[in-house]
Amino acid sequence: MPLLEISVSPEIAYDEAKLEAHLRKVANIRSNESIDFRLERRNIDARGKKIKVNLQIAYEKNRKLAPRELCQFEYQDVSKATEVHIIGFGPAGMWAALRCLELGFKPIVIERGKDVRSRRRDLKAVNRDNLVDSDSNYCFGEGGAGTYSDGKLYTRSKKRGNMQRILDSLVEHGAVEDILFEAHPHIGTNKLPKIVQAIRETILKYGGEVHFETRLTDLVQEGNRITEIRTSDGKTWPVQALIMATGHSARDVYYLLHEKGIRLEAKPFAMGVRVEHPQKLINKIQYHGNDYDEILPAASYKLVQQVEGRGVYSFCMCPGGFIVPAATAQEELVVNGMSPSKRDNNFANSGIVVAIELEDLSDYKQYGPLAGLEFQKEVEKKVWEAGGSTQQAAAQRLVDFVKGRISPELNPSSYIPGLVSKPMHEILPPFMAQRLQAAFVEFGKKMPGYYSNEANIVGIESRTSSPVRIPRDRGSFQHPEIKNLFPSGEGAGFAGGIVSAGMDGERCAEAAAHFLESK
Length: 519
Hints:
The protein is an alpha+beta fold. It is built from 14 helices and 22 strands.
């Protein structure tokens, strides 16, 4: 099967007939000969004035291409197998459960939130009625925060597991094959719920269990092992291996572990704001004024700047997306971004966040490993109060924020609960506000037109990653002091997105299986 690498104009790259004609010319295939081809890689190169799309194409002349090779997942009937308990049904928990099926262990998944269908009502209540259900929201529930997100599948953590297994598993459960060849693949928040539901159905089909609306409330420890867990429904569960995959927002789990004397560690994290521009403005900047709105996908960007020894950078950039309320408790304001599969909304939003090191939190030393968590909570409550103690978000036009002046009016926004003009330069912690202000000016130099009052900043983007790590041994994946506890995913501090969390979940399942087999 020949592979051809070519660089073409967007007009050719996104038109199948034109692409076939170009391919025939390059590969010297005559019109009376048949050709079968498919994309193996697609990447937009917009660095120069003349935009190119780099393609890797597999093709065959006068015969059909062999089907694309996907990973084969050989799930076993585990209905009567040894149990592995998994707390949390986000990406880490989902792929830990799927891997258990392959390894011959029965996953028992305990999820505090609701299934995706039931979860929608609670999301509507946050957006329309300012009511936050602390167990069912944009972070908690089937699929975790990843279900209602852009579904971005890019990761740099390729050494931490088999990325292809995660992508192939998503395709197996209903994702389009585009994610296998796009350089920066995404699925879309409108398509993710069905995929997540299909993963759950696979787990149930092969004998696993998924228990919704069941929150972890207590642990029973004997020596260096956890022997039982207790849940909000009053049930006690004997456990042999426990994978902790609760996500970065399950603060009650950190408090529980801390109270039980199970070692935690403070870790660096980042906080900042969501910045929202008109998507047409970002397209104009990134595509150098070329009118590619009808051909190329909505443009994205990636920015980073060092300010006072700290990185300020874009995070979870959502082209053609929405800003959503991501609070997990009533008296806090948190925002996040998501995009539908077509990325066809009128706005582009991105987190712009400041790296926070432990030395930035000297005023919170008394909280030990929970210092960052307490700082997060304090800022989220302050921003909630500034917005009027609802899910309306405090906001400011971008240049006004940098100049330190009140915005007399705000730009239109995708944020459904609404925005309130507030002096974010005064509300944010001074070190955070100052670093953001300096970085925005520099971003305007890197992307002329970005630093504009056509953009709003919306606060606060505070859940980029966990400020707490649940430590584990590098070899066994076990907690250093609890031999059958396997911290996993974003909540444990070992992942940063759908794919990396999924890979980490798989590796923790493998470690748990090895532990049980060696007993």
